[in-house]
Specification:
By secondary structure, the protein is α/β, with parallel strands linked by helices. 31% of the residues lie in helices and 24% in strands. It has two domains: 4-128, Rossmann fold, CATH 3.40.50; 136-301 and 342-358, Dihydrodipicolinate Reductase, domain 2 (2-Layer Sandwich). Helix 4 runs antiparallel to helix 8 and helix 6 crosses helix 8. The longest helix is centred in the last third of the chain and has 22 residues, at 306-327.
Length: 370
């Protein structure tokens, strides 16, 4: 099979090139980056320079790039999500085989549905850069959970980075990683109950402000949300603005009847096993690092480059999209996974504002701040 031709869209100053999404493809077998687009003249020059070896063509207009290059895959690289849906729909309608998109997916359920419908109609595969799900350490940890190593899973607890973005921004920008892992480990959400406060009082619709990076309206500096999951456990998401943590809590703790696994996002080692329940405190139970091959893997070097390791996870996510195109299947972190995180985010706000449990399937028109 001929190499799949990749065209990448960035937007310098408004989301830039995300987590270097355009640079992943040099390590993805069966692909060749052939074009880049950036509305910024300086940003485009830099992008062309990064891909000089590929002789990538440069465009200031991404729509013209789609029309002239007719790529097989489009990489939508910018962090800002206000343009994600528009670009994805246009790419699908242009006939591309695949779309690779920086997270978060899109701001609203309606936008997610529009992207899903466009891709479904065109037969386009869409993969999201939920890169933590493609870490070998995470996959090994999931295997241990599925093998019953920590017993019956009771709870899946997630915390955001809880820096100045804590609360609403943390939920939308970083929480999508956590919610994706939560449902991968515990099953689809069935219901949500949540409380959101701002300066110690419950939020109202009047507290909504436009969030950064095109994420839409957000509110609150403290969030506590609970989800019922299809496979049985209860999932939790929490974030407190400026929590004062020297090391961020950003991660997922899976609590079982016989042990626990902690997944520390964007970090190496990526996952750890405690061979006793979290509430067993009568003696010390160490947290053992889980390597790419499981507990018997050698620990990573102390000077390991975490950024390079995370980029390798990104290449695995991109390679999974390529495989999904060839095998005609849904990518592991595809558009339905992305839509689910958008639903969960909107359900958190809908529950907090209404003071009631929100059950699935969600009303497709759910837009808490409208």
């Amino acid at each position: 099979m001929n190499a799949l031709r990749v065209a990448a869209i960035g937007r310098t100053g408004r989301g830039d090139w995300g987590h270097a999404i355009d640079e992943l493809w040099a390590g993805v077998e069966g692909t060749q980056l052939v074009a880049v687009a950036d509305e910024s003249e300086a940003g485009l020059a830099q992008a062309i320079g990064r891909h000089k070896r590929d002789a990538a063509r440069g465009f200031r207009d991404w729509r013209k790039m789609l029309a002239d290059v007719k790529p097989d895959i489009v990489a939508i690289c910018m962090r800002h999500v206000d343009c994600h849906a528009e670009m994805a729909i246009a790419a699908a309608e242009s006939g591309v085989k695949g779309i690779f998109m920086e997270k978060p997916f899109v701001p609203t359920i309606a936008a997610a549905d529009a992207v899903v419908e466009a891709c479904r109609k065109a037969g386009t595969k869409l993969g999201l850069a939920f890169v933590n799900r493609h870490s070998p350490g995470y996959l090994a940890a999931r295997d241990l959970i599925e093998a019953g190593r920590i017993g019956k899973v009771l709870e899946i607890r997630c915390r955001g980075k809880e820096d100045k973005r804590g609360g609403g921004e943390d939920l939308c920008v970083l929480g999508c990683h956590l919610l994706d892992l939560m449902t991968d480990l515990g099953g689809s959400p069935q219901w949500c109950e949540a409380a959101i406060s701002l300066e110690g009082r419950p939020i109202t619709k009047a507290d909504a402000v436009d969030g950064p990076e095109g994420i839409g309206p957000i509110a609150g500096d403290t969030i506590a949300a609970m989800f019922g999951l299809a496979d049985g456990p209860v999932g939790y998401f929490a974030s407190v603005r400026d929590a004062g943590l020297r090391q961020p809590n950003f991660g997922v703790t899976v609590a079982g009847t016989a042990g626990a696994i902690h997944i520390r996002l964007d970090h190496v080692p990526h996952a750890y096993l405690r061979e006793a329940p979290l509430w067993r405190v009568d003696k010390e139970f160490p947290w053992k690092p889980i390597g790419a091959e499981g507990l018997d893997s050698p620990p990573p070097a102390s000077d390991i480059d975490c950024a390079a390791e995370r980029a390798a996870w990104g290449r695995r996510a991109a390679a999974d999209l390529v495989d999904a195109i060839v095998e005609d299947r849904e990518p592991e972190t595809g558009m339905y996974a992305g839509r689910r995180t958008v639903e969960m985010t909107q359900a958190v706000y809908a529950s907090a504002l209404s003071g009631r449990r929100i059950a699935w399937p969600l009303d497709k028109t759910v837009a808490p701040f409208s």
